[in-house]
Amino acid sequence: MSKAMLSRIKWTVVAMGLATLWACSSTKVNNAQATSTNVPNLAPAKLSLLQFNQQLEQELNQDPLSSLQSKIDVLSIARHLRLKHPEQYANPLNTAKVAADVKQQLISGMLDVSQTFSWHYLRSETFKDNSLAAYYRIDSDGGYSYVTLWLEPDSYQIYDFHSVSYAFSALDFVGKFSQLFTQYTNSQSQLNNLVKALQMNELDEAVRIYNNLDPLVKNDAALHDFLLRKYSQLPAENAKKLQTIVLANLEQPGKSSLLFEAHYIQLDNFAAAIKMVEGLPLFALQDSKMQSELAILHAYNRQFESAVSYGRQAILAEPNQREVYFVLLQVSFLAKDYGLSLALMDVLVAKFNYVMSPQVISEFEDGLSFIESGEYQSWLTQRMNS
Length: 386
What we know:
Blueprint: H1 3-19, H2 49-62, H3 64-71, H4 74-84, H5 92-116, E1 118-126, E2 132-140, E3 143-151, E4 158-163, H6 170-183, H7 188-199, H8 203-211, H9 215-218, H10 221-233, H11 236-250, H12 261-266, H13 270-278, H14 282-285, H15 288-300, H16 304-317, H17 322-335, H18 338-352, H19 358-362, H20 367-371, H21 374-385
Antiparallel strand pairs: 1-2, 2-3, 3-4
Helix pairs in contact: 1-5, 1-6, 2-3, 3-5, 4-5, 6-10, 7-8, 8-11, 10-11, 13-15, 15-16, 15-17, 16-17, 17-18
Signal peptide: 1-34
Keywords: Signal
InterPro entries: TPR-like_helical_dom_sf
């Protein structure tokens, strides 16, 4: 194979990888600088890391385009592409082109996130190699998820984005996906046909090609990440056609994706739903919302000791949030731990002035059983006499 042909193949593959970076990246981004907003944009050098992320959170929730155009840096993206994948990005011109496209994909994808979700900064972490991660939760009425923004340690410029739903960050996915086609040269034609079938939404053909791949290629992490990203782009009815091959990978030990938690909950397979959640990075697992979710999942899986433990951790993380007490109250009803139920109700009454009427309690699952219990009747009598 000539170097020129190899270069063309590499660029085609990079373009295909960029096209699947985001599950719903549809927002068009103009390369021109966006108009300024009323949010004061202080120079990063004058901001602490906390202040920078607080300002970024505000901008992402109000006018994200203006912020992202200036805070995502092409030179930083190019530098990290070379650091992560030196053999693939040795050519400065090709690297610059990929970096520019990655920036536009990052902006487009993050704008789409801002249209549906609100951003909530959690914390940051600096690693031994001086790399800097900023952790965010993204919330909507329909649910929530978590992302990592990778920042330059001095300027706080954003150069990479990682959704917890996928195995790889944006830069790692671009590099590893393009590497597929040079790593498995004997399967190159099949891989090209697989990508083409997915692009044309010929999903039955894509599944057939995938099933005929060499086992080593079929188990490649980058290929599975590509399939998962493509799966998340499809309408629900079409996505079912890819579900078999996607789930076959995720059900292996050590594999998971938050994308499939709801799928297993609908099947009442709470053990599998827990597996999809427990593969999350530590920063997400430690968030109070996820602690509460794990409490409920373990309760439905009848692992009540774990459920109570997660519920208590959620309260410790957010002691002034009424919702975390309600979650543990629900766990206590399912576990029939009515001593815990009464203690939580006392807190809700004293701390939040909440009226724990029979009507309110009956809205909880297994709440009616609690109302009929002797423990509740004694509690009610005591409060009426006090």
